[in-house]
Design goal:
Blueprint: H1 8-14, E1 25-28, H2 41-48, E2 53-58, E3 77-79, E4 84-88, E5 106-109, H3 121-134, E6 138-142, H4 179-189, E7 195-199, H5 227-236, E8 256-259, H6 264-274, E9 278-285, E10 297-304, H7 312-326, H8 346-351, H9 354-361, H10 366-372, H11 374-384
Parallel strand pairs: 1-2, 1-5, 2-4, 5-6, 6-7
Antiparallel strand pairs: 3-4, 8-10, 9-10
Helix pairs in contact: 3-4, 5-7, 6-7
Length: about 400
Amino acid sequence: MTPCVTIGLENLKRNPLPDLKNQRLGLLANPASVDSRFTHAVQIIQALFPGQLTTIFSPQHGFYAEKQDNMIESAHGKEPELNIPIYSLYSHTRIPTPQMFEQIDTLLVDIQDVGTRVYTFIYTISFCLELAAQMNKKVIILDRPNPIGGCRVEGNVLSSETASFVGRFPIPMRHGMTVGEISQFFNQKFRLGCDLTIVPMTGWKRSMYWQDTGLAWIPPSPNLPTPFSCMVYPGQVIFEGTNISEGRGTTLPFELFGAPFMDTSAMSPVLNRKITGAYFRPVCFEPTSGKWQNQVCKGFHIHVTDKHRFKPYISSLLALQLIIRNHKDAFAFKPPPYEYEYERLPMDLILGSREIRERIRDLSDIKTIENMWQQDLEDFICSSSTYYLYE
């Protein structure tokens, strides 16, 4: 399939920005930072601006995306062909230091986001925007598609008491923005003050999911191996805050979830009656790593049957509540630490709300819980849509 979307990296290649001439360049990237012919951004930038690329930065999971899980740091290194430093922004620090920015005038960002609040790449970018503003550096975002589209926005807006590295700003779980749009939103809405330029895509529409772009999917992290895993991720990520396996250590991370104690026969009829756009198929699986390693888990494989009707966040909240209802003695919320937070419950950080976790635990009506956040969600959509770059 010939791509119908041209990403920002390729638009830069076609029309190199004249302002970058003689600039010392940095690049925030990982293995997904490739063009439609699988040429990496490092090679493209080096060819466009020979000798100007001085520094590389990597987000969580590392420059080679080899690190599997949360709080597994990647080390600094060197790019072997150019012999320039690679600074890990998921190491002893998640925030770039002034020393890391000393050898650059402009930072190029070519990062594939997945459209979900708790995915840390957007906060790594936000910290880069802040430091660039402080050091009078420029940032250029090479935009990429939101793999789960830009029309549907879902979930509660993060409360200030649950802010963390998996939720720095008050946005909903599924934010509906491209990486360029949300970077622009952060920069202006929260006054980061960066001299920021977006190199937009051409051909991308808000109604597009990844499968509509014609682009090959390169996993931005090990446990989002396919566009289907991205579609369920805004909901299934909540199980990271529990003793339920979210499918890590299997070939279908986030598409599978379960535990040895789960009674799928009690849950299946309710899930498949109340959830639209997906079928929850009972399965058994045995993780090779992570929770319940080498133990048979009973659970579900989520099959998205209508991506435009499926609401992953509320669907997973319903599944979580059914697990609590049917397994109150065996189920547990995971204790800290989680993403360098050692006191607050991981589930509160993931949900972005202690109250929602308590209401789920107390078996409050799911529709009532969803109605709680509607006004905040509508306000967010109104505010964020002013930063949209695409129809």
